[in-house]
Design goal:
By secondary structure, the chain is an all-alpha fold. It has a domain at 281-483. Helix content is 74%, strand content 2%. The longest helix is centred in the middle third of the chain and has 32 residues, at 151-182. It is globular. Belongs to the CPA3 antiporters (TC 2.A.63) subunit A family. Keywords: Cell membrane, Membrane, Oxidoreductase, Transmembrane, Transmembrane helix.
């Protein structure tokens, strides 16, 4: 019975997705149904963590390698709660937004499927289980990316599949090498590598590099990033999930599991390959920001911003010290709530005004003041101006860099923050301080179902900046287990 309860947050969305396909719901009934499902799923997640947090479930054991295994630890709790909360807000937002996109039943069916798959990644107790759900994530999100069924969407979807499966192939190659060395793929806080000798260190290094690069595809590490901006052809609720939590953060989560729970902090700290991986991460931070500066399209500017911000998180992971890890995990959360708000605001502008380019939004801050003020608060947070949540996570990343004697890294983070201001502040100035001569500036905000999630998540962003200690303490507990 306990097994069923623990797996309920994963199974429940799958069942609901099937029911949407089978039942001919009216729009209103379907919307209520989806909202109830995502809300109940959050409650299930909470119950599991509260009362069943020591359960370990071997669902299917085919052999030593193929062992479908689930367990709950603090990292699971952190990621699953983030996913569950943001999914509820995206559900409310999508109820309104998807009216003009069409094919709503198909959208919400795969939308719920993706929720179940993402929580499957969170609950995975070993690498093979995570890998299987990681592959399912590609299949579940592909119909969302190509939702419009246009030629552009199909081309973007094709590229997304190619990149994702190529990354998964690298992961599988690394897993096979690792399993031959360890005969174990379980997630343990100090890693699973024991009795490291000069004879097998090269094989361990090859397996680590291939898995790191493979999981980095979904984390949009340069040069594996180009699928992400092209995926902006998807509806805004999909873009929000891709960039804030479902896909890119699943890639980051998988990297955290690989680095700390498979190889362990000691192996990573003493491995020379991390120096070369760090170069790719620094390039991602800077290149993402520079490319964002040159984007006129609002969604694409935010997409390239995501590439840069994910680099911050990857840098914190690869530095392997407590402050850097805390900064990375804080930024995983902070970037999720900030970026989903920014995309929601841009989507509200597109839905209400039909404007997609920066040059088209002159004076729109007077017409949609709540939306644009939420965009402004989130932008300031992403830049990292004190006392926002973005500042808190970047502070710990800088402290972690200095702790490793890497003086260059805080300078890069500061320079990237400057670039972030350069590509976000022009949007704000265009919206508030410029005006069309013939524009009467009649206030016409986004519909309530879109505005409520925007306001709520902006409020969460502010709270995380002013009162970071509860989340910070929880992450510090995780860090103590790992290092």
């Amino acid at each position: 019975m306990n097994n069923i309860i623990v797996l309920l947050p994963i199974i429940f969305p799958f069942i609901a997705a099937i029911l949407i396909w089978l039942c001919n719901f009216s729009r209103r009934k379907r919307n209520i149904f989806v909202f109830i499902i995502t809300s109940l799923n959050f409650i299930f997640v909470y119950i599991v963590f509260k009362y069943f947090n020591k359960e370990k479930i071997h669902l299917f054991v085919f052999n030593e390698f193929l062992d479908i295994y689930f367990k709950i630890d603090k990292l699971t709790i952190l990621f699953a709660i983030l996913v569950s909360i943001l999914w509820i807000f995206t559900t409310i937002y999508a109820m309104e937004y998807m009216k003009h996109e069409g094919k709503e039943n198909r959208f919400f069916s795969f939308f719920l499927t993706t929720l179940g798959v993402t929580l499957g990644i969170a609950f995975s107790g070993n690498l093979i289980t995570l890998y299987l759900f990681y592959e399912l994530l590609t299949l579940a999100t592909f119909p969302l990316v190509i939702h419009s069924d246009t030629k552009e969407a199909l081309n973007s979807g094709r590229k997304y599949l190619i990149y994702s499966f190529a990354g998964a192939t690298l992961v599988l190659f690394g897993m096979i090498i690792l399993f031959n060395l360890t005969k174990d793929l379980s997630f343990l806080p100090k890693g699973i590598i024991n009795n490291l000798s000069n004879e097998n260190i090269k094989l361990y290094t090859i397996s680590f590099i291939t898995m790191f690069l493979g999981f980095s595809v979904k984390a949009a590490l340069v040069p594996f990033h180009s699928w992400l901006p092209q995926a902006m052809v998807a509806p805004t609720p999909v873009s929000s999930l891709l960039h804030a939590v479902a896909v890119v953060k699943s890639g980051v989560f998988a990297l955290v599991r690989t680095v700390y729970y498979i190889y362990g902090a000691e192996f990573i700290r003493n491995n020379e390959s991390t120096k070369y991986l760090t170069i790719f991460i620094i390039i991602s931070i800077l290149m993402g920001s520079f490319l964002a500066l040159h984007q006129e399209n609002l969604k694409k500017r935010l997409a390239y911003s995501t590439i840069s911000q994910l680099g911050y998180i990857l840098l914190g992971i690869i530095l392997v010290n407590r402050n850097a890890f805390v900064g990375a995990m804080l930024h995983l959360i902070n970037h999720a709530v900030i970026k989903i708000t920014l995309f929601f605001c841009v989507g509200a502008i597109m839905y209400t005004r039909g404007k997609t380019e920066i040059s088209q939004i002159k004076g729109i801050g007077r017409e949609m003041p709540i939306t644009l003020w939420c965009f402004t608060i989130s932008s300031i947070s992403l830049i990292g101006i004190p006392p926002t949540n973005g500042f808190v996570s970047k502070w710990f990343l800088a402290q972690g860099s200095l702790g490793e004697g890497k003086i260059l890294f805080p300078a890069i983070l500061l320079f990237s923050a400057l670039l972030t201001a350069m590509y976000l502040l022009p949007i704000i100035t265009e919206a508030f301080f410029k005006r069309e001569k013939e524009n009467p500036h009649i206030t016409n905000e986004a519909p309530r179902k879109m505005l409520i999630p925007i306001i709520c998540i902006t409020t969460i962003t502010v709270i995380l900046g002013l009162f970071p200690n509860p989340v910070l303490s929880f992450i510090q507990e995780i860090a103590k287990e790992l290092m």
